[in-house]
Amino acid sequence: MTDEVRVANGAELTHALANGATTVEILGTITGTPSLTVPPRVSLRGGTLGFKAKGLKLTSNNSLSDVRVVTAESEAAIVNDISIADFGTLALANVTTIGQIYLVTNDQIQAGRIIADHVTLRRPTSRASSIDRTATEERDETIRHRPADLGAPRRAVRDASSQPPPRRPE
Of 96, 72, 76, which is closest to residue 158 (Cα–Cα)? Predict the structure, then answer.
């Protein structure tokens, strides 16, 4: 498989991830997809991913850019794999979610860096003015890190939800 792939449906996306694509461009909207684990060193960009339940699990050296990830508001739209020792750099740029973002560390993770630039958590609602007003509130707990050696710039992390931090998905 080529390193860069364009996908338009869930089957193409699953096939691209399973067959070694390193850059996947999402064309339009892909809905009804089960939860996906993004393999190491893979970038997803563009489009909208709509999930039945939980969304994306990032592994190591992943990037998401210009992507909208949609789950139920109470579900995790983006999480990281907490079973690895070094998650490298997880980069989110111009990412919007409906659902929670849960990027954390534990005792197993020894190294890693999280970069978040223009990340917005939105609430599903038909009142656009309500979304726009709350989307400007900053919440530091959106991206968490415990060990001091894990850098996590919190530039332009936005939360349009009044929900408490999510519970860690199984």
Answer: 96
Q: Say if residues 36 and 19 touch (Cβ distance below 8 Å).
A: no
Give the per-residue pLDDT at 74.
85
Q: What is the largest CA-CA distance in the chain?
A: 44
Tokens standing for residue 110: 């020894």
First and final CA of the chain: distance in angstroms? 31
**Ranges in the chain, pLDDT < 70:** 1-2, 124-170
d(CA 77, CA 152): 19
Residue among 114, 32, 99 nearest 69 (CA): 99
Between the alpha carbon of residue 49 and those of residues 10, 53, 80, 91, the distances in Å are: 9, 12, 17, 17
